[in-house]
């Protein structure tokens, strides 16, 4: 029997609640599988760790993660600690340190979800956003000079490398090629940003030559927001810079019904380092500890984690269980207009996994 080593990094706020729910789902799955099991290692990094040690994670934290098969991450954010400290001290440190350069964000309207666009049918919205995850606007390059004085200067430099742009474009073209529509939209802003974004466009055109079966187009990021709302079915796979995709994927999640549903994978495609899976929502302190957090974004992230491990059938089983549960409005959490608690949704998904795991009840992929 295969044993997968899974690092659990719940982080802060509702991250703690949804990662514990994600672990329950993985355990329910392992309980019905006879070919694999999970060995969990829990890392208590985040805001509380910062209060004790003055850092969000220990200096050798990345070493502890390197030997893992995958990481399940909650969220980084604490009302008492500045956001740039929590983000850079934990999540971005892991993404950059483990070279998880492809941030992959699937979005679709799950069964039973009342999405806000009135003219958009569920089949019209089925996207995967690929976000560059290690450089660009969030490279971390920059600084402050004359701090606190009237002549203070602050810079955040967007750094785009040819290698970094080419590898993310290539990843996106490959992903588009693997999807039925073989359709890719490259998001840009090369009209206003006349250096790096022009290089971004040029590299897209070069990489496209290696993927003649992929239909692709370019869209300015501002126009892309309107297109997502007005013509969602014209999009399929989307590739964008770190900042652009950050914003577009929150819009995508809202258009699909809730931030609480959306998953993401921070992927190191070459598998030199483990990849990390997380819901896209933040720590949501307003609902922390109340049992209101929607755990579906984490469960969908678990599906991505299983796919990454090559456990495709297991991933399908979890996705089917999620879709059975979202189809029932009585199992909707408050963000979806319902009254169900995190625990009720988790128990329902686990029960679906267990019943689908019984002989003769193989699930079908929706
Ligand atoms: P960050 O930690 O990135 O600063 P945040 O805490 O400001 O994020 P988000 O996670 O981006 O907040 O979410 C905004 C709001 O959406 C939350 O305050 C919360 O009310 C709601 N929300 C987010 N995630 C969920 C969820 N999983 N379930 C229910 N509601 C959610």
The CATH superfamily label of the largest domain reads Isopropylmalate Dehydrogenase
Helix and strand pattern: EHEHHEHEEEEHEHEHEHEEHHH
Poorly predicted parts: 359-366
CATH domain class of the largest domain: Alpha Beta
How many structural domains in the coordinates? 2
Strand order of the largest sheet: 2-1-3-12-11-4-5-10-8-9
Main sheet characteristics = 10 strands, mixed
User: What structural category characterises the helix and strand content?
Assistant: alpha/beta
Give me the CATH architecture of the largest domain, please. 3-Layer(aba) Sandwich
Model description:
- The chain has 366 residues and is α/β, with parallel strands linked by helices.
- The chain has two domains: 1-102 and 263-366, Isopropylmalate Dehydrogenase (3-Layer(aba) Sandwich); 116-255, Isopropylmalate Dehydrogenase (3-Layer(aba) Sandwich).
- Helix content is 39%, strand content 22%.
- The protein contains eleven helices and twelve strands.
- The chain has helices at 15-32, 47-53, 61-66, 83-97, 162-178, 196-208, 221-230, 242-255, 296-309, 312-326, 342-356; strands at 2-11, 36-42, 70-75, 102-108, 126-132, 136-145, 153-159, 183-188, 215-220, 237-240, 263-267, 275-279.
- Strands 2-1-3-12-11-4-5-10-8-9 form a ten-stranded mixed beta sheet, with helices on both faces. Strands 6-7 form a two-stranded antiparallel sheet.
- Strand 11 and strand 12 form a beta hairpin.
- Helix 7 packs parallel to helix 8 and helix 10 (312-326) packs across helix 11.
- The longest helix is centred in the first third of the chain and has 18 residues, at 15-32.
- The two termini are 28 Å apart.
- Mean pLDDT is 95; it is low at 359-366.
- Bound molecules: adenosine-5'-triphosphate.
- Adenosine-5'-triphosphate binds at residues 14, 75, 77, 83, 259-260, 281-287, 292-294, 297, 333, 335.
